[in-house]
Design the sequence.
């Protein structure tokens, strides 16, 4: 099939998906969790389902003049509270006040505090980690294929997947209050590796075909490579997607957005390795050919 004939349509689809998220990133940014801003994570468990009341917890926090980042259910009869840094005395006050309201003393399951200095350090390390990963991938692909256009195109495909994921979470953060945490960073790095894996498979087929059929136009070789790898790529991705959907539906709320990020990245990575990375190579090759003809 002549997939590359529609390369500009693929770029248009990518642009339509990326632009709203890019707008959101520029004007609203991402909503960081306490992992990055500093704060306290408190998880409480009640014995009675009726007492697992987010409204009651919110009312208690307001009475004690404690700022709330978010309150959510984290399992059966459990409440997860994210707030600005609070002391052990504040936790005792929260539990004591709730005990009076619901006629039951909730059990403290988790109490973690992250300082703002640690949060800033985590941001710095996250950025360095992503830059290092991208640099190593660029060097690896460049070395494997002996051509800078393969490495640059692979990085652009990764950049495409990153923008899709970051943009969607920026929109979710603005409209639904979804926060990014260290698990989100893990998801981003995982998706980058998944994206480059599929891209390398396609590029390897293109390289083999180039050696085997040196006189065949590059676009035809790209079409051949995509045709040969597309069904394999989709089948591999579907097994991952089915597993992630099961985990999203059956897993706890603390994993919900991590799994969702992996789902988005898997779909985007499958698309970009075939319909972004390969077309970018074709466009690059056309430009090189045109330049040679002009000179």
Sequence:
């Amino acid at each position: 099939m002549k997939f590359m004939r529609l390369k500009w349509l693929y770029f248009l689809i990518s642009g339509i998906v990326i632009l709203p998220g890019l707008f959101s990133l520029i004007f609203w940014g991402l909503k960081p969790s306490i992992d990055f801003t500093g704060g306290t994570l408190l998880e409480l468990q009640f014995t009675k389902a009726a007492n697992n009341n987010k409204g009651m917890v919110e009312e208690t926090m307001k009475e004690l003049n404690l700022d709330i980042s978010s309150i959510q259910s984290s399992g059966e009869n459990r409440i997860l509270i994210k707030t600005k840094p609070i002391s052990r005395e504040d936790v005792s006050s929260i539990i004591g006040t709730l005990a009076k309201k619901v006629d039951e003393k909730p059990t403290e399951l988790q109490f973690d505090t992250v300082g703002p200095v640690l949060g800033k350090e985590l941001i710095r390390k996250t950025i360095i980690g992503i830059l290092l990963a991208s640099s190593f991938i660029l060097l690896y692909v460049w070395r494997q294929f002996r051509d800078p256009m393969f490495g640059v195109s692979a990085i652009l495909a990764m950049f495409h997947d990153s923008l899709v994921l970051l943009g969607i979470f920026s929109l979710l953060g603005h409209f639904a209050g979804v926060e990014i945490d260290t698990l989100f960073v893990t998801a981003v790095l995982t998706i980058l590796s998944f994206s480059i894996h599929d891209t390398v498979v396609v590029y390897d087929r293109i390289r083999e075909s180039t050696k085997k059929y040196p006189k065949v136009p590059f676009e035809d070789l790209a079409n051949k490579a995509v045709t040969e790898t597309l069904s394999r790529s989709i089948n591999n991705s579907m097994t991952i997607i089915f597993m992630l959907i099961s985990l999203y539906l059956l897993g706890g709320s603390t994993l919900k957005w991590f799994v969702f990020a992996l789902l988005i990245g898997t779909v985007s990575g499958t698309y970009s390795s075939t319909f972004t990375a390969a077309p970018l190579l074709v466009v690059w090759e056309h430009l090189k050919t045109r330049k040679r003809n002009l000179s």
Summary: The chain has two domains: 3-33+118-294, 39-114.
